[in-house]
UniProtKB/TrEMBL annotation:
SUPFAM superfamilies according to UniProt: GAF domain-like, Nucleotide cyclase
Class of the enzyme per the UniProt entry, highest EC level: transferase
A single GO molecular function term of this UniProt record: diguanylate cyclase activity
Xref: InterPro entries: CHASE3 (IPR007891), Diguanylate_Cyclase (IPR050469), GAF (IPR003018), GAF-like_dom_sf (IPR029016), GGDEF_dom (IPR000160), Nucleotide_cyclase (IPR029787), Rev_trsase/Diguanyl_cyclase (IPR043128)
Sequence ranges assigned to domain GGDEF in this UniProt record: 442-574
Protein name in the entry: diguanylate cyclase
Species whose genome carries this gene: Chiayiivirga flava
CC cofactor: Mg(2+)
PROSITE patterns, per database record: GGDEF
Length: 574
């Protein structure tokens, strides 16, 4: 036995008489400290909840801006469709869109009443949005009352464009301000969570120290060392479990917030799926699972990612009716795969060990985007039930935002009638492709195509027939294009094709192929053939005919004019 150990043992076994005041003082101090820690934790929790609500408020404001912008664009598209086709459905869309734009503007104003600067911008945006809708309705009225020429003069005045440009400028400023506020509020939320964790940890640590002192004093005072030690050990174990549970809960909450922030920053569905796999793996390390997404056809659900060692095999593709959660629109949990109503997409063989499973539908704005499923032990599934719902909700919002962004992007660059790119995208792409080909010392060709006698075709077959013809030609051009080619509707019955790295001879051959294909086009509309159609094509190439985008288009246009004068249904080179 080491020297002095016997003396130390004797000291520990001797009764230690300490004043009762020390015990009571320690008890009072512990009580006060616990109350202070409780007050600090409650205050921190309230502050964290408030910060989280502000973050959600900012996300809602950004979404409201996007919805208002999309609805204004829908009204503009309806106006353009009405002027191009004269179809009454576009006029109906215009009339329906007007009150919706006004309602969205009022909603945006209400959304930012707490911020004077944003409130002023919102009021101005709402006023300009109503003005832009009024211009569209006025243009449609001019078309009805005075004909296409009057409506075209109104459009050419650019009054609506100037108003829309101002709206876009204000929306960008407003969204930038909201994103700045979002960054501040997310930082404040993270700081609140950090302070809450440290306050809890520090308070619990100090409380444990004081409780240990109280126990030691009571043990020495009452000579019940063995019984008190067992009780102290039990209490310490419970406290350690509580601390560990708090630590795990805080870590999971932090991981959930981090994953939600990353999901909101994703630009594609594949990015979102990669982030979701990482987040779900860290949140549920003891569970296996996967995420299904609904295809665009809405009739199939496809497994996009999976993780962990799932105790069951999952179907790669399934019908929405194969999952109880998707069918019922709410979470579906099975505690025992042998006895419960297991979803059809989860295979449970006769020899497989029993397991528990849960499926949570991904629902946003009333649309089912897919589902999340997890499988594992019953206790683990039950312990993570609320966390699974929160993670699924964040994923649903992120996927919904990505769908909305993609819809807005397509609407801004695609012509709705033909499915080809619009004139705005053409102007941007031609400048870019010219610069790229110039850097590589490669040619670039431009075709300008015009359908012959389109006005007479419209007069003979009506605007519906003309729309059908434009749609068929759009699909034909898209099918005949190479992967790097860009097919655009220039306006009316005119189309432009950009052929990167194609010289004038290649472009001439391609133009002849397109001309021949259009002349052989069979168009059926309302069970009736609309007759043969021909086209004239003008071709120009860079750097042979021009280096600048506008000059190159003018050269192709001049060649097209010569083709028209030379009898139509032909190809002319600039």
């Amino acid at each position: 036995m080491p020297p002095g150990s016997s003396r130390l043992s004797n000291l520990l076994t001797q009764p230690l008489r300490l004043p009762r005041r020390s015990v009571w003082t320690s008890l009072v101090a512990a009580t006060v400290l616990l109350l202070a820690v409780g007050a600090t934790v409650v205050s921190g929790a309230r502050r964290f909840v408030q910060d989280t609500r502000w973050v959600g408020h900012t996300h809602a404001t950004i979404e409201q801006i996007s919805r208002l912008y999309a609805r204004i664009r829908d009204v503009e598209s309806a106006q353009r469709g009405y002027l191009l086709t004269g179809h009454i459905d576009y006029l109906s869309q215009l009339e329906v869109g007007a009150p919706e734009v006004e309602a969205l503007g009022r909603g945006l104003i209400d959304q930012v009443r707490d911020n004077a600067a944003q409130h002023a911008r919102a009021r101005e945006i709402a006023t300009l949005a109503v003005e832009r809708v009024a211009i569209s309705r006025q243009t449609a009225a001019l078309y009805q009352e005075q004909g296409l020429a009057s409506a075209q003069r109104e459009v050419a005045s650019n009054r609506g464009k100037r108003v829309m440009d101002h709206v876009v400028e204000l929306m960008r400023a407003m969204e930038a301000e909201e994103r700045r506020l979002l960054a501040q509020r997310e930082t404040a939320s993270d700081a609140s969570a950090w302070r809450l964790q440290w306050a809890a940890a520090l308070g619990i640590g100090l409380s444990l120290a004081l409780i240990g002192i109280v126990f030691w004093l009571m043990l020495r005072e009452n000579r019940v060392r063995r019984l008190a030690e067992r009780r102290a050990a039990s209490s310490s174990a419970q406290l350690a479990e509580s601390v560990e549970a708090l630590r795990l809960a805080g870590a999971r909450l932090h991981e959930l917030q981090r994953g939600a922030s990353m999901l909101q920053s994703c630009r594609t569905t594949d990015e979102a799926m990669d982030i979701a796999r990482q987040t779900f793996t860290r949140l549920f390390p003891d569970l296996g699972g996967g995420i299904y997404l609904t295809r665009a056809s809405q009739n199939l659900v496809e497994l996009r990612i999976d993780w962990g060692d799932a105790p069951t095999d999952c179907a790669q593709v399934m019908s929405p009716n194969d999952c109880w959660a998707v069918r019922r629109g709410q979470p579906h949990t099975v505690d025992d795969s042998r006895n419960g109503s297991l979803c059809a997409h989860l295979a449970a063989g006769a020899d497989a060990a029993p397991f528990a499973a849960t499926c949570v539908p991904l629902v946003a704005r009333g649309e089912t985007l897919g589902l999340v499923h997890l499988a594992g032990s019953r206790d683990t599934i039950a312990a993570h039930a609320e966390l699974v719902l929160a993670a699924a909700e964040q994923l649903s919002l992120a996927l919904s935002n990505l769908q909305l962004q993609e819809t807005l992007r397509v609407q801004s660059i695609r012509d709705p009638l033909t499915g080809l790119y619009n004139r705005r995208y053409l102007e941007e792409s031609l400048e870019r492709e010219l610069a790229r080909c110039a850097r590589r010392h490669q040619p670039l060709a431009v075709m300008m195509l015009d359908l012959d006698h389109f006005k007479r075709f419209n007069d003979t077959h009506g605007h519906d027939g003309g729309d059908a013809l434009l749609g068929h030609v759009g699909r034909l051009l898209d099918a005949l294009c190479r992967g790097e080619d860009i097919a655009c509707r220039y306006g009316g019955e005119e189309f432009i094709l950009i052929l990167p790295e194609a010289d004038i001879e290649v472009a001439r051959t391609r133009a002849e192929q397109i001309r021949s294909a259009i002349s052989e086009l069979q168009i059926l509309h309302l069970r009736r053939s609309l007759g043969p159609v021909t086209c004239s094509i003008g071709v120009a190439a860079s750097p042979m005919h021009a280096d600048a985008a506008s000059a190159l288009v003018q050269a192709a246009d001049a060649a097209l004019y010569r083709a028209k004068n030379a009898g139509r249904n032909r190809v002319e080179i600039a």
